Amino acid sequence: MSVQKKGWRDLPTGGLILEAGSSHTYKTGGWRTYRPVHNPQKCINCLACWIYCPDSSVIVTDGKFVGFDLDHCKGCGVCAYECPKKVRAITMTEEAEEAKD
Ligand code: SF4
Ligand code: SF4
């Protein structure tokens, strides 16, 4: 897929983002170094990961954790940090290792 790149004259003054919701088309998962991996056996569905994820990349359905949106997860590790210490249902793994599978 070819991406149409803009020249500097095409950018809005001040770098403003004029189109609402445009971040959805920018797949930040493409430059992720670490990937969150979920352990459903340990998860208690407290949804702390969903609350704290800065990229809205924790997918929840009917009040339960169902997965990560890996197109937009940038691998910051906040979800793993906020998962309760007694549970530790999310571990961060190297993206390169996960991509081999
Ligand atoms: S690693 Fe960061 S961006 Fe990815 S799901 Fe966890 S909190 Fe969200
Ligand atoms: S924070 Fe941990 S225990 Fe809570 S829903 Fe997320 S993965 Fe499950």
Structure description:
- This protein is α+β, with helices and mostly antiparallel strands.
- It has a domain at 41-101: Alpha-Beta Plaits, CATH 3.30.70.
- It has 3 helices and 4 strands, in the order E-H-E-E-H-E-H.
- The strands form 2 sheets. Strands 1-4 form a two-stranded antiparallel sheet.
- A hairpin with a 2-residue loop joins strand 2 (58-61) and strand 3 (64-68).
- The longest helix has 6 residues, at 95-100.
- The radius of gyration is 17 Å and the shape is elongated.
- The two termini are 24 Å apart.
- The site of one iron/sulfur cluster has 13 residues, from helix 2.
- The site of one iron/sulfur cluster has 14 residues, from helix 1.
**Structure ligands:** iron/sulfur cluster
The count of strands amounts to: 4
Q: By helix and strand content, what is the structural category?
A: alpha+beta
- In which order are the strands of the major sheet placed? 1-4
Instruction: Please trace the helix and strand order, writing H or E for each element.
Output: EHEEHEH
Helix content: 10-25%
- Oligomeric form of this entry? single chain
Named CATH architecture of the domain at 41-101: 2-Layer Sandwich
Portion in strands: 15-25%
Query: Could you please say which CATH topology of the domain at 41-101 applies here?
Result: Alpha-Beta Plaits
> What is the count of DSSP helices, taking H or I runs of 4+ residues?
3
